[in-house]
Design brief:
The chain has 185 residues and is of the alpha+beta class. Helices cover 39% and strands 18% of the residues.
Amino acid sequence: MSKAPPAAAPAEGEAPKKKSKLLLIIIIAVVVLVAAGAGAFFILNKGHGGEEGGAEPPKAEKKHKAEPGKPPTYVNLETFTVKLAAESGEPPYLQVAIALKVDDAHAGDAIKNFMPEIRHRILMLLSSKKGSELSTEVGLTELADQIKEEINGVIGTPGGVDKRGKKREAEGPVASVLFTSFIVQ
């Protein structure tokens, strides 16, 4: 019986070169995929960053749709009592209780965390109003929208004017402002 000749062994230098080329190709492919993913992330999130430095409140998602069958979440604010702007004679007082309809319970927690700033902004807004502005349904609707803008500006994305000069509404978790008590005296 004769023995078969041994199989030709690869040269010592060939195997490591093939492995290193394959490893290099894999590394380059991974780097390209990571760079493409990072680029896509920054392009898709362009314009969502804060314009001012420092700590920012958590940003809310743009438009939340309520889940069918799930009851809405409400956050009651403490009663506000302010002296309204004077029109003639003694300025009237306003006492108002507000409930906020929000996207979810987490939004309620964010509102509670920023309550001092929210109350300040609402008090400033209310005290700038005249009694005659608040005596109509249109005036109350405008006030509710302004309060919503103020609160969403604190805990969401602030409104303002975009590059084209168009007014941009603040976006945040507050869906609507509801007056549960409203007394002008």
